[in-house]
Design a protein that fits this description.
This protein is of the alpha+beta class and about 400 residues long. The chain has three domains: about 90 residues, RNA polymerase II/Efflux pump adaptor protein, barrel-sandwich hybrid domain (OB fold (Dihydrolipoamide Acetyltransferase, E2P), Beta Barrel); about 70 residues, no CATH class; about 220 residues, Chloramphenicol Acetyltransferase (2-Layer Sandwich), CATH 3.30.559.10. The chain is built from eleven helices and 21 strands. Strands 11, 14, 17, 18, 19, 20 and 21 form a seven-stranded mixed sheet that branches. A hairpin with a 4-residue loop joins strand 4 and strand 5. Helix 7 packs across helix 10.
């Protein structure tokens, strides 16, 4: 019985998607729920699972094509066995020699990189959770000549930039003395990020206010309880949960910072859904922590860790990314000392964290070395006044320099 493989129903806010790559070719056997292809939208990467077991009979859409909900992608012959002639069909050049070897266990981004570089994933040392292969493992493998020669893999002579993970062709232009330029089309996600950032700057009246925070009290508290916290809750006590809690306290005092503009109305959100920016190889994603005012520190840390893993493995969903009343981004993880983050529309403000550095500070008339962090609040001046923005940031500072405020809500 022939079964049509169709594009899954796309969310209402997504008009179409791009077929990035096929993981199976005509004549190959597939098992139920095995991923057949990756579809990239402007927000997430979706997988197309096989509805039944059988043999792939026909591919109707080539990689790099835009598709819409319900469009037929391929035809699957249910229950069929692989014919001897079909079994000898060569996999398309874009696929890795061992693409079917445990390919279902690879994250889409890792699988795509392995296929593009024509690597055998079984020969690459894996350091991810439960022995999974990560993108970092592949990059390290490619950068290690000894490992490559031992494994016998021969990656492409000149790898395209990391941005060239879509199926769109790379155009190389030769220059003098062997100098070349590579023209790579933007991925849908990168194009969408660029569009939204420009929209935010052109639509909102954005300003940024700065302050600095002495993190000694938080660091002392964390050092004292981190072992017991991890033993009880099974997750490490990080700094982000303190910033999330401090932000919620500040949002309660200054509800305009938690509001948004819709037409001529100001919508005051009476809940606290905090987006936490996560950097991935595809671009910046901002999964949302729901009702964080009702969550404990352990819940916040677990949810942040879960979102980070899902985002980097390409398993983040549209529901994870939608909504949000306020955002936090941490450029300090990359060494940033100071920056002006751009507001994530339709929100009205975003808190930027930066690197913690020891600096001499005057404390009670004495010079002491303290762990200091610069923080920034970018805000939409159309509805948030400078006084509110400054006092919001001061509230965050006070809560973190005296964490007892977070417990007492003062």
């Amino acid at each position: 019985m022939s079964i049509e493989i169709k594009v899954p129903q796309l969310p209402e806010s997504v008009a179409d998607a791009t077929l990035v790559t096929w993981h199976k070719q005509v004549g190959q056997a597939v098992t139920r729920d095995e991923n057949l292809a990756d579809l990239e939208t402007d927000k997430v990467v979706l997988e197309v699972p096989a509805p039944v077991s059988g043999v792939l009979k026909e591919l109707r859409i080539v990689a790099g094509t835009s598709v819409t909900s319900g469009q037929v992608l391929a035809v699957l012959e249910e229950g069929a066995a692989v014919a001897p002639a079909a079994a000898a069909v060569k996999v398309a050049p874009a696929s890795a020699p061992t693409a079917a070897n445990d390919s279902g266990k690879l994250a889409p981004s890792v699988r795509r990189m392995v296929e593009e570089k024509q690597l055998d994933p079984s020969k690459i040392p894996a350091t991810g959770r439960d022995g999974r292969l990560t993108k970092g493992d592949v990059v390290e493998y490619l950068d290690n000549p000894a490992a490559k020669s031992a494994g016998g893999d021969k990656p492409a002579a000149k790898a395209a930039p990391a941005a060239a993970k879509s199926a769109a062709p790379v155009v190389a232009t030769a220059g003098a003395a062997g100098r070349q330029d590579q023209r790579v089309p933007m991925t849908r996600l990168r194009a969408r990020i660029a569009e939204r950032l420009l929209e935010a700057q052109h639509t909102q009246a954005q300003l940024t206010t700065f302050n600095e925070i002495d993190l000694k009290a938080v660091m002392d508290l964390r050092a004292k309880y981190k072992d017991g916290f991890e033993k009880k809750h099974g997750v490490k006590l990080g700094f982000m949960s303190f910033f999330v809690k401090a932000a919620v306290e500040a949002l309660k005092k200054f509800p305009t910072v938690n509001a948004s503009i819709e037409g001529n109305d100001i919508v005051y959100h009476e809940y606290y859904d905090i987006g936490v920016a996560v950097s991935t190889e595809k671009g910046l994603m901002v999964p949302v922590l729901r009702d964080v005012d009702l969550q404990g520190y352990a819940d916040i840390e677990k949810n942040i860790g879960s979102f980070a893993v899902k985002a980097r493995e390409g398993k983040i969903t549209l529901d994870d990314l939608t909504g949000g009343t306020f955002s936090i981004t941490n450029g300090g993880t990359f060494g940033s000392m100071l920056s002006t983050p751009i507001v994530n529309m339709p929100q009205s403000a975003i808190l930027g964290m930066h690197a913690t550095k020891e600096r001499p500070m005057v404390v009670n008339g004495q010079i002491e070395i303290r762990p200091m962090m610069y923080v920034a609040l970018s805000y939409d001046h159309r509805i948030i006044d400078g006084r509110e923005a400054v006092q919001f940031l001061v509230t965050v500072k006070d809560c973190l320099e005296d964490p007892a405020r977070l417990l007492l809500s003062v």
